[in-house]
Structure formats: structure tokens, C-alpha cells
């Protein structure tokens, strides 16, 4: 097997494509032949030693991937050789093969393409948990999605529309706003040329959005929160822009609003039954055509560094996926 090996977590340039022995699965594990792996923001942080999870060195980055089971370890009964699965295990995906915990592998129904499967779990699970569980978004409500053209943003647009909400998508360029409209957003705000608060006031007749989905942070957080509707819910999803914003608590008081943390990873661990039910619903929505990952581009697995560079350019719309031919 071959893999991108991180032996020194000082950044993408330190990654090396190496030939390694193909491992054997132990109890509770499966060996997967990887067909596709998507690039997520944590995949960048982890090779820079900036992510909350710090795997032992050396490790293979690539948190989310899809492939075929080629061997199963002792005690694995719900998966079989030849079965197609998707997995989000945190590491191991940027390779030709990987050992994956069997419990973390999601069997794929027939007709679920590998590229879509590799770009599915993290963004859709995060957005579903955020909007419908933590945000309690209801049909007829208005949701503002920041960073709407990114991986989680595009998933959030589709999930909010499936829930019957009105979607206002905010992006940093006209091209990104156009994409958001194509996948279902009711209105868009280009925050590089428009004042966010003025645009929200006009689009909501002064009421403000009921739910704000924020995976960006930084300078957008406070003006967005100042625009929130009475009893609104501000979803803290992530900080893709880098700095963690500090919101004045008096705004929550004046708006009767809630600041709600979203941590899908721990939700999946602490409430596995609820998470499994959610994933089942999401797969059903995919098969019904209600949701579909937006793929910015696919690149050969050997071009992982180019994929990282493209993600760092902040021009990605949807997800970048690496594929093994």
C-alpha cells in the first residue's frame, strides 16, 4: 500500500508519499481499499499540530473516506468482504488502504457513488445535528448560513430546505452566491460587497433570521448576531476564518437569543443511537435526491498537496475529493 505519511506535523510540505506494509485488521477492525477521500478543514489543522486530536506519530491524515472491505477482523459480523462503506475515523484516508474501526463504517446502499460517499458524513452529519437537533429549526423559519458555499455550508443549505425553512446564504463572492442559489438558497448576501446587517434587515423585513449557522467566526459573528430575531438561535459550528470571536453577552439578553454549541463528534460518541437514526435519515434523503454533496473537484490521491493548496486558497466551493484510480 501507499500513503501520505505525516512524520513531522509542521505542515503540508512535510507530508511524504510512501510505500508501507499493508496491515492486517485486528479484532473489531476492517481493512479497506480506499476509492475516495475528501479534504476537510481538520485535515489541514492536524498536519500543522493545531487540531484538538493529536495522533501518535507517524500517522496518515485523511479523516473521511469511502472504499471496499477487503478483510475483516475477529468479531466483525455486520460487515463483509466486498462491501462498500464510508468511514470518518479522523485519520488514515489519504492512502490506498487503511485499517478502520468497524463500528465507524457506514454501509452504503447500491447506487451510492464513492466520491459522494467520501464527502458525505462530516458535512451532512454536522449540519443536520446543528440545524435540526441543536437549532430546532422549523418549517417556515428563516436561517442565515455563513460560509454557505463551503462543504458544511452547502450541506446546511440542502438540509434547511429539506426541513422547509427559508434560506439566506452568505458568501464571499458572486460566484459562491450563484452556487448557493443553484442548490436551493432563497436569497444570498455577498458579504465582500454588501453590508451584512443592512442586507439581512431588508431580506427579513427587519425581523432578522431565526437561526444563524456559523462555521466561519471572526468578523462576521457580531454583525450576524446583532441581526438575529427574537428567540433566535446562534449556532457555533466552527472557526474556519481562524480567530475565535467574542460575542457580547448583553446581545443575547436583549434578543432573548441562545448561543448554541455544535459538536457533532461528541454527539456521535455520547448519543450513538440518536446519531445512527440521523445518519439513516440522511442516507434516505440522499437516495431520494433531496441532498447531494457539492464536489468542487476530484484529484488523484498522489496530488494531495495540490488539494491542500486549493483548500487554502479559500476558493473551494463544496468539497475537494482525492481518488485512487
Automatic annotation (TrEMBL):
Domain Enoyl reductase (ER): 11-322
Alphabetized CDD domains for the sequence: QOR1
Keyword Oxidoreductase (UniProt): yes
Keywords in alphabetical order: Oxidoreductase
A Pfam match: ADH_N
Enzyme Commission identifier(s): 1.-.-.-
Gene3D superfamilies (UniProt xref): Medium-chain alcohol dehydrogenases, catalytic domain (3.90.180.10), NAD(P)-binding Rossmann-like Domain (3.40.50.720)
Record-linked InterPro entries: ADH-like_C (IPR013149), ADH-like_N (IPR013154), ER (IPR020843), GroES-like_sf (IPR011032), NAD(P)-bd_dom_sf (IPR036291), Quin_OxRdtase/zeta-crystal_CS (IPR002364), Zn-ADH-like_protein (IPR051397)
Any one GO molecular-function label of the UniProt entry: oxidoreductase activity
UniProt cross-references to SMART domains, sorted A to Z: PKS_ER (SM00829)
Transmembrane segments: none
Protein name: NADPH:quinone oxidoreductase family protein
Organism this protein belongs to: Rhodoferax potami
Amino acid at each position: 500500500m501507499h500513503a501520505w505519511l505525516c512524520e513531522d506535523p509542521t505542515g503540508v510540505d512535510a507530508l511524504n508519499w510512501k510505500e508501507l506494509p499493508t496491515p492486517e485488521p485486528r479484532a473489531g477492525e476492517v481493512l479497506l481499499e480506499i476509492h475516495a477521500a475528501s479534504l476537510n478543514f481538520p485535515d489541514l489543522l492536524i498536519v500543522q499540530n493545531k487540531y484538538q486530536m493529536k495522533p501518535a506519530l507517524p500517522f496518515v491524515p485523511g479523516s473521511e473516506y469511502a472504499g471496499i472491505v477487503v478483510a475483516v477482523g475477529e468479531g466483525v459480523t455486520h460487515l463483509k468482504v466486498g462491501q462498500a462503506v464510508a468511514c470518518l475515523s479522523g485519520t488514515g484516508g489519504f492512502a490506498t488502504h487503511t485499517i478502520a474501526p468497524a463500528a465507524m463504517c457506514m454501509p452504503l446502499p447500491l447506487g451510492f457513488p464513492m466520491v459522494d460517499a467520501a464527502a458525505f458524513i462530516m458535512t451532512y452529519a454536522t449540519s443536520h445535528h446543528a440545524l435540526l437537533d441543536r437549532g430546532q429549526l422549523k418549517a417556515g423559519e428563516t436561517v442565515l448560513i455563513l460560509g454557505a458555499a463551503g462543504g458544511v455550508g452547502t450541506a446546511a443549505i440542502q438540509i434547511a430546505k429539506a426541513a422547509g425553512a427559508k434560506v439566506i446564504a452568505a458568501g464571499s463572492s458572486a460566484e459562491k452566491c450563484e452556487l448557493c442559489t443553484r442548490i436551493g438558497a432563497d436569497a444570498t448576501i455577498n458579504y465582500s460587497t454588501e453590508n451584512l446587517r443592512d442586507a439581512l434587515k431588508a431580506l427579513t423585513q427587519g425581523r432578522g433570521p431565526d437561526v444563524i449557522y456559523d462555521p466561519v467566526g471572526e468578523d462576521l459573528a457580531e454583525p450576524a448576531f446583532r441581526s438575529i430575531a427574537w428567540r433566535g438561535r446562534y449556532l457555533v459550528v466552527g472557526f474556519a476564518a481562524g480567530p475565535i470571536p467574542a460575542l457580547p453577552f448583553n446581545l443575547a439578553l436583549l434578543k432573548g437569543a441562545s448561543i448554541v454549541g455544535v459538536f457533532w463528534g461528541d454527539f456521535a460518541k455520547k448519543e450513538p443511537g440518536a446519531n445512527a437514526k440521523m445518519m439513516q435519515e440522511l442516507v434516505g434523503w440522499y437516495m431520494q435526491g433531496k441532498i447531494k454533496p457539492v464536489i468542487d473537484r476530484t484529484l488523484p490521491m498522489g496530488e494531495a498537496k495540490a488539494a491542500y493548496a486549493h483548500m487554502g486558497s479559500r476558493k473551494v466551493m463544496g468539497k475537494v475529493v482525492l481518488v485512487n484510480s
